[in-house]
Design brief:
The protein is mainly alpha-helical. The chain has helices spanning about 1-10, 15-40, 60-80, 85-110, 120-145, 155-175, 180-205, 210-235, 260, 265-285, 285-295, 300-305, 310-335, 345-355, 360-385, 395-400, 400-410; strands at about 45-50, 55-60, 115-120, 245-250, 265, 390, 390-395.
Length: about 425
């Protein structure tokens, strides 16, 4: 009887992640095609791509587009049950389903608002700009975790960079710009590196639980920056300061439609993409990058080849902290021009989700961070459109929660299984 039960258990079809997501798409498609579409306005709406009356645009009927998207999602749901025969096709369909979901949110938003059109280009550019600090935080985590050290303390390192950098700026010249502003950015970077060094000492040298060490870094940064704000910034009345100036990239900023939006920005935004390109090259094309990857996968094998595991982990963790400090500077010195308690607002934790989503690979991590940036920008756009459901406007708190809902979905594993570096989270003890 036991063998029969086992055999029966083996014959039971297994509901994979792709099929689970496919079922969700199927349910969503049915709801969109047969329930949501009839409730939307049938008045024409327009997505414009650029400014002015001559800008390119797409005029559409919200009901018809919703039906098409719903039926397409149903097709994707059916395809998900054939993943054994056409795995790549199924994966592509599921990714395309996510893109259609984002389009559907935009279609529904404009259909439920009083606006007849919305410009898509600023939304996409804002997605990149809001995704930039997330990307930097995720890059900081990538360097740390590719060396085998879990970094829950990204939030604290970013907060330390934002707070200590701005305090330095206020003390140097009261936040009036000039060379002091760039010195403050350096201070912010070093502050992030200092907190990363603390994390390295606790987790690498003393072999403390790496999650606990990261939490300690976060709590320490919250306490220190709050103290500095009340004891330094408040007496100085430093609540507004000159931020980093925008500059344009020649030729690229002259590209029609999006050039003046995308290639006119502030320096840390542009530096984000430079750092990702450099990180991809160093990680995969240099001897030091190979050593980082080796100690993250099998530190004992790396040690046997003469690699100093402790030294490499210190270097990688501190490098990540320096990048996180730069992300903090983007908040206080590039964007806002002030500092408030916990102003990073959970960005470090969203960066961790982007790191997992991107599976610890630079290009994928950057794309994942920009996806989260799009979620933030979408919440802002919905709020600006004044979307109403049943005569009631969506509360701003609901829209602000959009990125965190997306984070929960990602961490729940809807995007597939992410396999971390082999030795991540495991303290290393050098053989005697």
């Amino acid at each position: 009887m036991t063998s029969v039960g086992v055999a029966a258990g083996r014959r039971t079809p297994k509901l994979s992640r792709s099929r689970t997501l496919g079922l969700f798409y199927g349910f969503l498609g049915i709801m969109l095609a047969f329930r949501v579409a009839p409730a939307l306005s049938d008045m024409p709406r327009k997505f414009s791509f650029g400014r002015g009356p001559d800008a390119l645009g797409w005029t559409f009927n919200p009901q018809a587009v919703t039906v098409v998207i719903g039926l397409t999602l149903i097709v994707f749901a059916v395809l998900s049950f054939f993943e054994g025969r056409a795995r790549r096709l199924v994966q592509g369909a599921l990714i395309m389903g996510s893109v259609l979901g984002a389009v559907m949110i935009l279609v529904a938003s404009i259909a439920l608002s009083q606006s007849s059109s919305t410009n898509v280009v600023p939304l996409l550019v804002q997605s990149l700009k809001l995704g930039s600090p997330i990307a930097l935080g995720a890059l900081a985590g990538m360097w740390s975790e590719r060396s085998g050290v879990v970094n829950i303390g990204i939030e604290g390192m970013m907060l330390a960079g934002a707070g200590i950098g701005f305090v330095g700026y206020a003390l140097l010249n009261g936040g009036r710009g000039g060379a002091s502003l760039y010195v403050a950015v350096v201070i912010a970077i070093l502050a992030g590196g200092l907190f990363a060094a603390l994390h390295a000492v606790l987790s690498v040298s003393f072999r403390t639980d790496q999650v606990v060490s990261g939490v300690a870094v976060n709590l320490g940064a919250i306490g220190l920056t709050s103290f500095l704000r009340t004891q330094v910034l408040v007496p100085l009345n430093a609540d507004s300061a000159t931020t980093l100036s925008e500059f344009s990239i020649p030729l690229l900023s002259a590209i029609p439609i999006f050039g003046d939006e995308l290639f006119v920005a502030k320096p840390i935004f542009f530096l984000t993409f430079v750092l990702f390109g450099a990180s991809a090259f160093v990680l995969h094309r240099t001897r030091w990058g190979l050593r980082v990857r080796s100690v993250g996968e099998n530190p004992y094998a790396a040690e046997s080849l003469g690699i100093n595991v402790i030294k490499i982990r210190y270097q990688a963790v501190i490098l990540g902290g320096l990048i996180a400090g730069l992300a903090g500077a983007q908040f206080s010195l590039e964007t806002v021009g002030s500092f408030d308690d916990q102003m990073t607002n959970g960005t470090g934790f969203i960066a961790l989700a982007a790191l997992v989503f991107g599976k610890w690979r630079p290009g994928s991590v950057l794309a994942a961070a920009m996806f989260f940036g799009f979620a933030r920008a979408l919440g802002v756009r919905i709020q600006l459109l004044g979307v109403e459901i049943g005569g009631f406007g969506l509360p701003s708190q609901f829209l602000q929660a959009v990125p965190y809902v997306v984070t929960l979905v990602v961490l729940a594993g809807a995007v597939g299984r992410a396999i971390p570096p082999g030795a991540v989270g495991r303290p290393y003890k050098r053989p005697q």
